[in-house]
Amino acid sequence: MKKRIAIMLAFAVSTSIMAGCGNQKGSAGQPVSTGSGAGEASEKADAPGKEDAGEKSGEAEGTDPMAGVTDDGTEKTITYWHTFTEGARKDYIDQMVADYMEAHPNVTVNVEVYPWNVFTQKWTAGLAAGALPDVSSVNPDNLFAIQQAGAVLPMNPLIDALGEDYFLKKPLENFTYEDVILGIPYYLHSYVMWYRKDVLEEKGLEVPKNWEELLAAVKEIADPPNQYGFTIAMSKNDQMCAQLLSCFAKAEGAALITEEDQGNLTDPKVVKALQLMADLYKAGSPEGSINYGLSEQNDVFFQGKSTFAFGSGFHINGVKQNSPELLDKIAAVPFMGPDGETLGDTAFVIGLMGWNQTEYPETVYDFIRFHFENERYIEFLHLIPGGQLPATTEAANSDAFFDNDTIRQFQEEITYIQKGIEKGTFMGMDFGLTPAAAALTSQGIIEECLQDMVLNGTPAEEAAAKANEKLNAAIEILME
């Protein structure tokens, strides 16, 4: 049953695209607060807990599980799957792996690089064939599906060795299930609302502070095909509508999935957010955005055709690559609720994980730890400044991290994103990791709901009720 659920969850992942990473073409900010990390490992079946990992390594309780084991002279080979397929980040990982092997001559790290959709296919096939890596990068949906399959190597021993406050509290909590730390956050982001300063100034408009002002600004600005207001992407093969709905709903304190793992789309707050999105589409979104996914949605903003957009700090890099002349003309604010409140945020994490079939758990822990040595780690984060925000306490509060021209330029925006990271949760996971959240990304339910509203004129309450019924049916299958 666990494998069945995991394969279904993985299918959900393979049909979705991460909004936060954007298109891959081609004085200091505010410190982030920290707190205690996750607790001890649980006794959950199919995923070894802290004690199991310790017994497997032969280490005595209370010792560093990596000490004296990786460099014991025994020849070791581990396989590392990662998803950094493009230029600078791929080159960086290649060099980091070479540096690790130079520091540990008895260890060979075999690297395999896959885009996210292929990664999902690879691990699901590898699960059946017993051909899995020792270490990999991972996103939240994949990580939970892998945990459901019983293939995760718990990271509790690594956190014990590094200290409970080595990583920022909330991102580590977001990667924790029943006290088992499933993975280590590698870089972070949360979503904010980007806008064109120059377009607002030309129209004599202030930055919107609530939903009424946002809708009014979009109506005033829209001049298709020269300039659009807010691009609302609705492709059912993507998850852009669901992500945007999550941003608006969390801002007003509403969840898309309840603590009891039921759909919450009929909540009046969520219905109101759906109506806002339909109104924004009608007021100033490209007509073709009914079929837009991540790439098309981002391109409209990156190329200067849309005034408002939702995204992470990766939008800085997207504009810089596509329309560098506009870089000084963009800014961002947190998503707001109908009255200007921001009660919650939608966050995203790219992490690193170990696989429990490994013969060398201590080396896996040690290799993951190597990624986070501060000078090296900051170099990685600066490859996409503002897009890749730090997961370690040291880097998040380091002058060296903020010593970057782009980060200085967008200090205010990055501070907003950091604050979103501090309190944000993944879409559909307001109450913790749950397989139910995959129903938001696998079925196109939210996207179909918005299409029903804008194409057929279906009232928001009716469309939300139909969508909620479909969402609960999908959740029921995932929760069997």
Written description of the protein model:
The protein folds into 2 domains: 2-15 and 35-187 and 347-423, D-Maltodextrin-Binding Protein, domain 2, CATH 3.40.190; 192-344 and 443-478, Periplasmic binding protein-like II (D-Maltodextrin-Binding Protein, domain 2). The chain is built from 22 helices and 12 strands. Helix 1 (2-14) runs antiparallel to helix 4 (116-129), helix 9 packs parallel to helix 11 (268-284) and helix 21 runs antiparallel to helix 22 (460-478). The protein has 480 residues and is of the alpha/beta class. The model is unreliable at 11-20 and 22-63 (pLDDT under 50).
Oligomerization state of this entry?
single chain
Q: State the helix count.
A: 22
Largest sheet: 6 strands, mixed
C-alpha termini separation: 8 Å
Features:
480 residues; alpha/beta; D-Maltodextrin-Binding Protein, domain 2
Record the SSE blueprint:
Elements: H1 2-14, H2 50-57, E1 76-82, H3 87-103, E2 107-113, H4 116-129, E3 135-138, H5 140-148, E4 152-153, H6 156-162, H7 169-174, E5 176-177, E6 180-181, E7 184-190, E8 192-196, H8 197-202, H9 211-221, E9 228-230, H10 240-251, H11 268-284, H12 294-302, E10 306-311, H13 314-322, E11 330-333, E12 347-355, H14 361-371, H15 374-381, H16 393-396, H17 399-402, H18 405-409, H19 411-423, H20 439-442, H21 445-456, H22 460-478
Helix pairs in contact: 1-4, 1-5, 9-11, 10-11, 10-21, 12-13, 21-22
